[in-house]
Structures are given as structure tokens and as C-alpha cells.
Amino acid sequence: MSAQKGDWATSGGRLSRRGAGQLSGLVLELLRRDGRAQTPAEVLQQLTEAGSGPLAYTTVVTTLTRLHEQGVLDRYRTGRAYAYLAIGDPAKVTGRRMRRMLEAENDRDAVLASFVSELSPDDERALRDVLGADFGEPEGGVGGR
Questions:
Q1: What keywords were assigned to this record (predicted)?
Q2: pTM higher than 0.70, yes or no?
Q3: Is 76 found in the same domain as 42?
Q4: Does 140 score more than 70 pLDDT?
Q5: CA dist list (Å): 87 to 13, 91, 98
Q6: How far does CA 88 lie from the centroid of its chain?
Q7: 5 closest CA partner among 59, 46, 47, 86
Q8: DSSP three-state, residue 42
């Protein structure tokens, strides 16, 4: 599979392959920070000004469309194009994404076990606190650990 123009980012004056989801993250951050609906052309201009490397208009449109399909952006018709607006707070959006990924798996228990096994001690403690608060468990968490 060949790389597309928008798959590359400038790093230290060199072109390097853009990481998975990196462009989506940049676009979402830009729209959240600005707080107003923007067309793909406006997003492309801001990304270019921010030094995001060479990007094709179609790459930006595809990224915005995918973020809309994921429920992260609203879009409004503005003439022949759409204007996109970030919705929700970042924690809720990430939680929604995690839930969708979990729902797509056949063995949810295995996925959850794998996820928990990868948590740092601080994140595990935070998860236990959230679960304890939601389900009335003692502060020590489920199972008294």
C-alpha cells in the first residue's frame, strides 16, 4: 500500500510518516481550540500554517468525515461544503470511542482484562475509584484490594 500525500508530516526539516490517528488528533484539537464551525478549506489552511506538513484537501475532508462518523464532530451545510464543529468534552468523546471499540469485539471479557492489565498503577487506582463510586463499593475497590 503506498503512502498518500497527507500521510506525511514534517519533523526536523524532514518528511516522516504520520502516526495513526495523529492527523485526526490535530484536527480535533484545532476545532476544539477555535470553538467555531470550520470548512475543510479553513481547517487545511490552519493545519498548513501550524506546520503540519503537506496535506491534500481530500485528506482533510476524509479526516473530518471520519471524525463526524465517529460522533466527535457535528457538521452543517454551508453552500456546497460542510462546516465542522467539535462536540462534547474530550473525556466523553474518548469514552464513547472506547465503548464502540469494545462493542465491536466478540470476547468483551478478554478485551477488558487485557485493557486493565496494561494500566499503570495510578490509572488502575483511578478506575477502581470510578467503579467504586458508580457501584457503591468501598473506597478500596472491588474485592477490597
A1: DNA-binding, Transcription, Transcription regulation
A2: no
A3: yes
A4: no
A5: 34, 11, 17
A6: 12
A7: 59
A8: helix
Q: Where are the alpha helices (DSSP H) in the chain?
A: 22-34, 40-49, 57-69, 90-103, 108-117, 121-135
Grid cell 468525515 in the structure block, residue:
65
Domain that holds residue 50: 5-86
* Number of folded domains that form the chain: 2
13 within domain boundaries: yes
Assess if residue 97 is contained within a domain.
no
Q: Quickly tell me which residue has 494500566 as its cell.
A: 119
Cell digits of residue 6: 497527507
The DSSP letter of residue 36 is S
Residue 129: partners with Cβ closer than 8 Å, 6 or more residues away: 139, 141
Same domain, 68 and 13: yes
Do 73 and 29 share a domain, yes or no? yes
For the chain, how long is the longest CA-to-CA vector?
Answer: 59
Q: Each residue of 42-100: pLDDT tens digit?
A: 999 999 998 887 899 999 999 999 999 988 899 999 999 999 999 877 787 788 778 88
pLDDT at 7: 46
Amino acid at 131: L
